């Protein structure tokens, strides 16, 4: 892992930007705490994505540390292969996180729409993820929730990593950090063992497997079912299982990433060994990093690459535990509860923390 040069001081909490500075256009997504909007900053006419997160929902799910951690990390991270934060602020009821708007939709949406990706497209997507992970890992950050839903396409078909809610600065004693998404979670994380960068590469292998085979290797209705499958067998793509239009090198790359034991897994020693796998022979990494390659998959900009059904519901969250929400909403009347969210403000034009980890 690399070292982190994070500044310890809290950001300026002077409120220079608020909800009133934005024109809310329409809903483009949802998360565990609220909606994601397409918004326009009135002063500059710039378009962004804004996560609107209900404090009551955050309190009910005991996720205050998670949302504060995401804001803290994003204030220190800036890179062309992640979704970057521009502003963060709050009011009595909600937290707001203003991010880059990527109009190509996420890989889950596109996979559902197109049913499969070609080997060439998959290789490009995976290479983008590797570039993003290289930046995170070099700066001591584990993402820990790499999955198609958290990989978003821009209008040129480049993939960027998003959702840092359970990302963590690496700690050698992190066995208790078991959060993640079953099906993409590395065995060492699921089994409550210490884990490092290899956990993120395991998820990359699962994604590549899914794009090749049309399904994930480990399926189940619960975390326990998936865990039992992982412990029961080591998935390997056999030669006779490789689709006709895919290479042996692609299968070998995937097989090396989905190794159950991290000591056997490609990526344990960092991104260099991943990039040097034969599947990426002659791949133009420098041109990818400079964003000068033409993506083999360009999202159709005439289509809306979001689930527009979200706009048909006045309250997509109505199935939540109403009693817990009511209790949390009542708590918001107290200064004690509001103080839990102190220091959430961020303005990229005022804050300099991004200078520590940014790269052009």
UniProtKB/TrEMBL annotation:
Top-level division of the source organism's lineage: Eukaryota
A GO MF label: protein serine/threonine kinase activity
Domain AGC-kinase C-terminal: 281-356
Membrane recorded as keyword: no
Amino-acid positions noted as binding ATP in the UniProt annotation, renumbered to this chain: 51
Alphabetical keyword list: ATP-binding, Kinase, Nucleotide-binding, Serine/threonine-protein kinase, Transferase
Any one Gene Ontology BP term: intracellular signal transduction
Enzyme class, broadest EC rank: transferase
Reaction equations catalysed: L-threonyl-[protein] + ATP = O-phospho-L-threonyl-[protein] + ADP + H(+); L-seryl-[protein] + ATP = O-phospho-L-seryl-[protein] + ADP + H(+)
InterPro entries in the record: AGC-kinase_C (IPR000961), Kinase-like_dom_sf (IPR011009), Prot_kinase_dom (IPR000719), Protein_kinase_ATP_BS (IPR017441), Ser/Thr_kinase_AS (IPR008271), Ser_Thr_kinase_AGC (IPR050236)
Residue ranges of every copy of the Protein kinase domain listed in the record: 22-280
PANTHER family documented for this protein: PROTEIN KINASE DOMAIN-CONTAINING PROTEIN, SERINE/THREONINE-PROTEIN KINASE
Family, per entry: Belongs to the protein kinase superfamily.
Name of the molecule in the record: non-specific serine/threonine protein kinase
């Amino acid at each position: 892992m690399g070292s982190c040069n994070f500044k310890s001081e809290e950001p300026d909490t002077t409120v220079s930007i608020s909800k009133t500075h934005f024109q809310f256009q329409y809903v483009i997504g949802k998360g565990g705490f609220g909606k994601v909007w397409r918004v326009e900053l009135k002063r500059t006419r710039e378009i962004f994505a804004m996560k609107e997160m209900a404090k009551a929902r955050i309190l009910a799910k005991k996720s205050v540390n998670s949302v504060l951690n995401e804001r803290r990390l994003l204030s220190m991270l800036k890179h062309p292969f992640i979704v970057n934060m521009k502003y963060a602020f709050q009011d009595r009821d909600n937290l707001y996180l203003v991010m880059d708007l990527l109009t190509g939709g996420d890989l889950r949406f596109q996979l559902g729409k197109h049913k499969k990706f070609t080997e060439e497209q998959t290789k490009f997507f995976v290479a983008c993820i590797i570039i993003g992970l290289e930046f995170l890992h070099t700066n001591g950050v584990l993402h820990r929730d790499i999955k198609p839903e958290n990989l978003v396409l821009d209008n040129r078909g480049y993939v960027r990593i998003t959702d840092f809610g359970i990302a963590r600065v690496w700690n050698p004693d992190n066995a208790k950090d078991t959060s993640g998404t079953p099906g993409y979670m590395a065995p060492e994380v699921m089994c409550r063992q210490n884990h490092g960068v290899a956990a993120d590469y395991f998820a990359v292998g699962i994604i590549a497997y899914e794009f090749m085979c049309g399904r994930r290797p480990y399926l189940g209705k619960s975390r326990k079912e998936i865990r039992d499958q992982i412990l029961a067998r080591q998935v390997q793509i056999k030669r006779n299982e490789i689709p006709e239009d895919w290479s042996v090198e692609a299968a070998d790359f995937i097989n090396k990433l989905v190794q159950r034991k991290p000591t056997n897994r490609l990526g344990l020693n960092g991104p260099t060994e991943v990039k040097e796998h034969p599947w990426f022979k002659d791949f133009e990494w420098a041109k990818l990093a400079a964003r000068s390659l033409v993506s083999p998959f360009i999202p159709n900009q005439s289509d809306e690459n979001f689930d527009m059904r979200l706009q048909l519901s006045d309250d997509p969250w109505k199935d939540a535990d109403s009693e817990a929400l009511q209790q949390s909403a009542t708590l918001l009347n107290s200064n004690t509860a509001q103080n839990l969210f102190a220091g959430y403000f961020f303005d990229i034009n005022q804050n300099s923390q991004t200078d520590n980890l940014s790269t052009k």
